[in-house]
Amino acid sequence: MQKTPLSNRLHIALIGPMNAGKSSLMNALSGQDLAIVSEVAGTTTDPIVKAVEIIGLGPVAFIDTAGLNDKSELGAARVKKTKQMLKRANAVCLVFDASNFNEAEIAEVTATSPVSDAQTILIFNKIDKLSAEERSALNQKFPDALLISAEQNFGTDMVRDALIQCLQDIQEEHLIGDLLPPGSIIILVTPIDSEAPKGRLILPQVQVLRDCLDYGHLTTVVQVDELAKAIEVMQPDIVITDSQAFKEVATIVPDDIFLTSFSILFARQKGDLQYFVNSLQDLDTLTNPRVAIIESCSHNFTHEDIGRFKIPNFLKKKFGENISIDFYMGNDFVERMDDYDLLIHCGGCMTNRQTIQSRVETAREYETPMINYGMFLAYATGTLDRALLFFEDKI
């Protein structure tokens, strides 16, 4: 991979009323013309995600949003989409036109921010339209706000510094590297099926491999029929496999070697492994549950697809053919948590940790069991205990 995927980037959302200069600020911060800007209110009609490199921050993703005061025929749908995208944000810039705002609007927009005050930056743009006296009065009224002119590139360095300050304490995400001493021996099992992109590995496998290399672990990648020989030669500390091959791989890997799956590593990295484990314990108490299966990416699916076919087939075998199953794809998520007794989420390799964390928090708030694909497959195939043994003293 030559570029950092969006799922591994810190996400910065720009929100505020229409024509406040959110897109202009994104262009100024990135040094690129990423978004079309104009004096016409409502130029940005849907959230736009742009991946950029910011000195001092590294790879980030800007979320440029539609105006939250859009009263047009499609305004409500645009605002709803914006609020969905905000759940990805690690930091939020609240952007207002310094020459045209009201305090009630500031309070309303601030209330939509999904992050803490420490990760929220209040910005008044277009201060070039104000007199010196008006700027001074604005600064006195909002002493913590940043006064800038994105169009004239004035003050954007202050925004950049503020973003660095509020994002610097976000801990780096790890998959496996930090759980083992340097120089550990790891075997990755990557079955090649019809969903595997020709000529390359799928993203979860690539991300785990990169994490292993970053920590100096001796790592090799094999297919299932090569595994026994690889174990004999390498004597690994742990084998990590694709969830779909877990049952077969478990018969090959000796009991004294740890075994887990890519998806369970993602459950620890992006979700809440302990909450998922607790949710699995609730699974046997359910009867005829209403299930939501949630896939963060919107790929085409085949007969081998985990979310569309394999997991539903396991559910029907356990709970009966008439079980209620709904599917959510991409950025869509459950709106009415009370409608479901169980959420089964993909590993989340295509979305960032903040998104998964916000979904876990919603599930926890409603006491709705939530697990991810890999943990469900391990449960369904009777291999869950072994898959979790590696994490016994780590969760």
UniProtKB/TrEMBL annotation:
Matching InterPro entries, A to Z? FeFe-hyd_GTPase_HydF (IPR023873), GTP-bd (IPR006073), HydF_dimer (IPR041606), HydF_tetramer (IPR040644), P-loop_NTPase (IPR027417), Small_GTP-bd (IPR005225)
Q: Name one GO molecular function term.
A: GTP binding
One Pfam entry for this protein is HydF_tetramer
GO biological processes: tRNA methylation; tRNA wobble uridine modification
Q: Name one GO cellular component term.
A: cytoplasm
Q: Where is the G domain?
A: 11-126
The Hydrogen maturase F dimerization domain extends over 175-271
Q: Which residues form a coiled coil?
A: none
Q: Which UniProt keywords apply?
A: GTP-binding, Nucleotide-binding
Specify the protein name: [FeFe] hydrogenase H-cluster maturation GTPase HydF
Source species of the chain: Culicoidibacter larvae
Q: Which residues form the Hydrogen maturase F tetramerization domain?
A: 275-388
Highest taxon listed in the record's lineage: Bacteria
